Amino acid sequence: MRPLAPQHVVAIDVGGTSLKGSVVDGDGHAVSLERRPTRAEDGPDAVIDAVLALASDLTSGSPDTAAVGLALPGVVDDETGTVISAANLRWRDVPIAALAAERLGLAVAVMHDVRAAAVAEGLLGAARGAHDYLLMTLGTGVGAAMVIRGQPYTGAHGFGGELGHVAVEPRGPLCGCGRAGCLEAFASAGHIALRYRAMAGAHAEGCSAREVAQRAATGEPIAGAVWREAVDALAIAVANYVTLMDPELIVIGGGMAAAGGELFGSLRHRLEAHMRFGKPPPVVPAWLGEEAGRYGAAIGAWRAAGIDEARLRTWQTRP
Ligand SMILES: [Zn+2]
Asked: Are residues 132 and 230 in the same domain?
């Protein structure tokens, strides 16, 4: 008698503060969601233990699990399943796919988290049907993933697509990476809030990037200046990408994308101003929000388990 076909995979999105894991069926439904602390403050081994323990608990709770998918931050070699470096996990050269496969006895697919999100947006979300597109996530930092001819592009060493660390103004503010003037130092939520607080003083105490966007919209001049600077930096970086790669579509996600019309309207306008060759492609909001990385990990796991691609395309991500 043939064994029953495996009916679930386990997908885990590994973030700097929390791990989000789900058991996902062949129709893309998450039948469970578990969130645990990453434990980065306890060092790299504690994070490895936390990831493996969550994967192990989820797979033992679902004995028909066919494969495991992990979405991870940092510089990730998707091919070998190794995290080359991830500052917020304190990892360096961690062969997480091999460690997980050994512990679980299952196939393990590993993807950089923003590339995982880009794959999910392409199959199920805002980039459905597109073959050449860029996904940017504007949050605490600026993440980006390039999809070229339907495949996420990693480059030769796993860090291809780090648009957040492209310089947009060499004399600009200092970025977390140690260099001045990166896109991230202008357009990440963290830096927008920092710049506004530094310029506006007491009046800006505890103000988040979204509040800066709201204050800018009501005509507050300092917030307006910081916001315009952020949008212009984004427009320069996106225009550079479009000039080099000629994508069909730009998808923007992350917490800042929730600024909605404020961001998208002014970004399209500034992008137009910075383009010299061709027309700017559509710039659209991501659909999958915080779940994009976990969807990408589930897709990676189901592909490792040999699912029919046509079935993946039937997944419904919107009600
Ligand atoms: Zn940088």
From this structure: yes
CA of 75 to the centre of ligand 1 (A): 14
Q: Torsion angle of alpha carbons 56, 62, 66, 67, nearest 10°?
A: -30
Q: How far is the CA of 15 from the centre of ligand 1 (A)?
A: 19
Identify which of 240, 134, 140 has the alpha carbon closest to the alpha carbon of residue 184. Answer: 140
pLDDT tens for 154-164 read 998 888 999 99
CATH number at residue 67: 3.30.420.40
Asked, for residue 92, whether it belongs to a domain, the answer is yes
- For ligand 1, the distance from its centroid to the CA atom of residue 192, given in whole angstroms, is 14
The string of pLDDT tens digits covering residues 98-110 is 999 999 999 999 9
Distance 182 CA to ligand 1 centre (A): 5
CB-CB contact of 130 with 146 (8 Å): no
E strand residue ranges, 179-266 = 249-253
SS3 161: coil
Q: Tell me: do 103 and 163 sit in the same domain.
A: no
pLDDT classification of 319: cutoffs 50, 70, 90: very low
Query: What is the CA(180)–ligand 1 centre distance, in A?
Result: 7
Q: Are residues 72 and 112 in the same domain?
A: yes
CA 165 to ligand 1 centroid distance, Å: 4
Show the domain range for 97: 8-118+290-312
**187 alpha carbon – ligand 1 mean position (Å):** 11
Domains in the chain: how many in total? 2
The CA dihedral of 68, 72, 76, 82, to the nearest 10 degrees, is: -50
Tokens coding 306: 């040999």
On whether the CB atoms of residues 177 and 163 are closer than 8 A, the answer is no
- pLDDT tens-digit map of 69-106: 999 999 999 999 999 999 989 999 999 999 999 999 99
Q: Which amino acid is at 270?
A: R
Q: How far is the CA of 184 from the centre of ligand 1 (A)?
A: 6
How many other C-beta atoms are found inside a 10 Å radius of the C-beta of residue 309? 10
How remote is the CA of residue 18 from the centroid of ligand 1, in Å? 24
